[in-house]
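Review this:
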Amino acid sequence: MADAPEGLERADNVERALLQARALIESSVSLHRQRPGGASLVVRADDRSIGEAIRQLMAGARYSAHVAVTGGRAHSIAVCSALAASVADLPPTGRGGRSRLAVRLLAAGGTLHMSPNFCDAFGETNLEIRITKGELREALIIDGRTALVQSGTETGARHAAIITDPAAVGALDLLFAGTWTSARPLADELRLDRSLRTTLARRILEKLREGHTDDVAAREIDVSLRTYRRHVAEIMRELGANSRFQAGVRAVELGLLERC
């Protein structure tokens, strides 16, 4: 049998590594919760307690803070507010100062809710925000050495665990990095929201995916052929697509269309 293409083999290796990392994280969280005298490692996962835990961990941040947000509106606001307040409390320069800190904020699509002046609190801090359509585990990872992760339910109550085990934190950071790489910058996502999430754009994308000719698609959507082609050109430019088929595929990847 011929050897698998190098790209496929690399993808398989990455997938295996991520699955192993996920299993390691779950195991570490379970051990922390079962460890005698380990109650200090667990916090209640209500918004106020999570906010306090974020500020406590961020106070010790020196180089990086990786934040993944998946909750609803109130939870997202609480996390973002605590993060902004924590950064604002850091000294502007010097060891552990804002100028040295790199903050990566990653959110599942539709779950990020920030105050209008959210970014102002970060000043010269290197802040990057991305949106993902894929699976995301909520976490805060500080300097690749300490993590705050949600650990599921216990008698109906949500809890989160503070993890300091190097292997578990490293695995969690690996999962974050893998999702971050494929996520879209917030500015790109907002631009797509404005231009490609309209009813007309969605209908055109569906016609592109289905492979309709321009004449047929324009007639079914009830626009002129010239107007249809102008919209198609704009959509392809926004998606960075070289063909109508590729535009349809990209629309599915970005969550603009449901998978068949």
About this structure: Residues 6-34 form the longest helix (29 residues). Residues 197-253 form a domain with the Arc Repressor Mutant, subunit A fold (CATH 1.10.10.10). Residues 32-40 have pLDDT under 50 and may be disordered. The radius of gyration is 22 Å.
